[in-house]
Amino acid sequence: MLAASALENLIEALKRLPGVGQKSAQRMAYHLLQHDREGARQMAKALSTATESIGHCQRCHTFSETELCLICSDGARDARLLCVVETPADQAALERTGSYRGYYFVLLGRLSPLDGIGAREIGAEELLARAAQTEVEEVILASSFTAEGEATAHVLAEALRSRGIKATRLARGVPVGSELEYVDLGTIAHALSDRR
Ligand SMILES: [Zn+2]
């Protein structure tokens, strides 16, 4: 009974991963137990360490093990540009293009009134305060091209412009309905340089 319950717990835990249902979770659990216990131990340790040591950057809110993330502590970046993304994964996608040298603000979500996620929950006030800093000349809205991402960009653009801050949006070319993190790098780089 004990063994069965540990296995069930493992399968249930694996099902928490996005896109993983009962069948895949079972396959993963059996694979780890049968072929790769060392890998499973490493995974358990990495998960435990990550959940304990990774917090959020105080300035841009992305994942960070230190108070300020590596990007925010990099004084050589262009302080006139502030790029707003929904998730740390989207930020990583933009970084991989190598064509953006400004700083970031990570919303950790997007407006979704039906789920009770409003301007406050995505840190709009903090973003506005940060954008009002004298060095910031342009806020690039790089939220996703989903309906909620578009609404988020719209609301933030209005708020920024009403305070006299220039707000631009990634250009079209990123497919409608897309999460940035799944879009190819060339397309993102294009959307970035053609922003308006
Ligand atoms: Zn940061």
UniProtKB/TrEMBL annotation:
Q: What Pfam families would the database entry show? A: RecR_C, RecR_HhH, RecR_ZnF, Toprim_4
The record's InterPro entries line, in alphabetical order, gives: DNA_Rcmb_RecR, Rcmb_RecR, Rcmb_RecR_Znf, TOPRIM_dom, TOPRIM_RecR
Query: Which keywords fit this entry according to its UniProt record?
Result: DNA damage, DNA recombination, DNA repair, Metal-binding, Zinc, Zinc-finger
Protein's UniProt keywords contain Repeat: no
Q: Where are the zinc fingers (C4-type)?
A: 57-72
Q: Which residues form the Toprim domain?
A: 80-175
NCBIfam families xrefs: recR
Function of this protein?
May play a role in DNA repair. It seems to be involved in an RecBC-independent recombinational process of DNA repair. It may act with RecF and RecO.
The family annotation for this protein states: Belongs to the RecR family.
Q: What is this protein called?
A: Recombination protein RecR
Query: What organism does the record attribute this protein to?
Result: Roseateles agri
